[in-house]
Structure prediction request, 583 residues.
Amino acid sequence: MTEIRRVRVALSTLFMIALAAACSPGPSQTAPPATDARSTASPSLETQIARFAPVDLKVDISALPASEAAALAHIIRAAQVMDGIFLQQVWAGNPALLARLAADDSPEGRARLHYFLINKGPWSRLDKNTSFLPAEYGVPAKPEHANYYPADATKEDVASWLATLVGEGGNPNSARGQASGFFTTIRRAPQGMATSLGPFYWVPYSVEYQNQLAEAAGHLREAASLTSQPTLKKFLELRAKAFLTNNYFDSDMAWMELDASIEPTIGPYETYEDEWFNYKAAFEAFVTIRDDAETKRLSVFASELQALENALPIDPAMRNPRLGALAPIRVVNVVFTAGDGNRGVQTAAFNLPNDDRVIKEKGSKRVMLKNVQEAKFEKALVPIAAVALGAADRGKVSFDAFFAHILMHELMHGLGPHQLPGNTNVRQELKELYSPIEEAKADISGLWALQQLADRSVVSPQIAQTMYTTFLASAFRSIRFGVTEAHGKGIAMQLNYLLDQGAFVVNADGTFSVIDAKIRDAVAGLTRDLMTLEAHGDYAGAEALLKRMVTIRPEVQRVLDKLTGVPVDIEPRFVTAREMLKR
Ligand code: ZN
Prediction:
């Protein structure tokens, strides 16, 4: 037990050394290509890595007072600890494998380490989790139960054990609530040690990751003592306490109340890595600075929402005369991310917390990572535009329009029909078709809304002039991720609808263009069609529309085929964080 703990303590340090090795321009960048047998494996690994365009993530922190900058440095140090914990959560073999990879300074070794750090393990997340290491490393298939459950247990074993426990899953104080809760691992009871619980027992995260969490808590308390912003101080103190007590409720509540220039998100949150039950939360961190200019733009948009609702291009009886309160949205810039928040494809926005008890009392908060979106725009969307758009359209792609549309998309989820007559709502009536229809609605009505605001000079005319072409290029970026989930389906539907309306056209050379004379009416038309479907809770109509429209047409596929050399996503380099830690 103590030996394992020692490895764990060393892990965050090891991770930082490995990261420095993988990122420094080592022999792999300067040496001529190796010609021995091993080189057959490396081109494909290089190609896998090249899908993530490296990008320097910078944030202007010059406006931060010294006290806040000092606090920020400690928050970054706490965040670094999350990388080590997450590696352990993904797979028990990760720490030893990382040590082995870090010790190999051959060009292949460096490339393997580099891709390991991108994926936080030996499996390529963009390639259905296939291992990218040669057979000699003995890497198994990626465990669906991660390291949250005993490696040798089956899903059925654990499920039937859970069923024997007293209490309900939703009650965190009951045995079953603990065992199926966010913040425990499940371990096998030692041989011969009869327990009243049966073959397994649960371990609180505060015990399982005791040393690392003590280290992270220490940094958060230091940060709390330095900051002069009361809501930040409160969150940091309570989160440090949660790391040691395993009770996250109070600190989640404090996170909802944060109103500070530094907006940190740190702790166990998302459950994607638990592919068995989606019960267990992975550790992550997003250390960010609030973007005041965008926050102001958001409040301008928010103040226009009722006027937009009153003007929706639908039957006036379907409009909502009194919109409810807005869920909080924060626009921030990333200084540092770690753990589950920095693996494979980068997170561009998130909605937390996930604890229903907190959501019931405080709702949830949407956080938009602006500089991450900007990096994705420059490294993926602009090159896609160069391939997908006609020559005249290429110049009409702008980040300002891209980001204004993302904000408007979020706000438009709150507009249009929701509650329906007969004590039901759109989600209930459209069932599994709700998400693709609602996502497409938020997209297309977001364009409609920005056009309204541009017509009234609430937003700049440049946004209206570039948003349709930007949206067209962005559609190709989204479809690359596939049309199996809600956003992809919604995008395919919109693209095909606008093609059918003649608002998007295919040029002789296969590129796409926006037809200015037709796009406004087409956007309003699809907004009307989707919102009317929702107002009628029309499941059959939604089904027919999706069946007809969710398809990748040959002219779209031909463009997608030309995008193979364009990066899929980014690999952030946290230059601002690195500079801060050097001070
Ligand atoms: Zn959405």
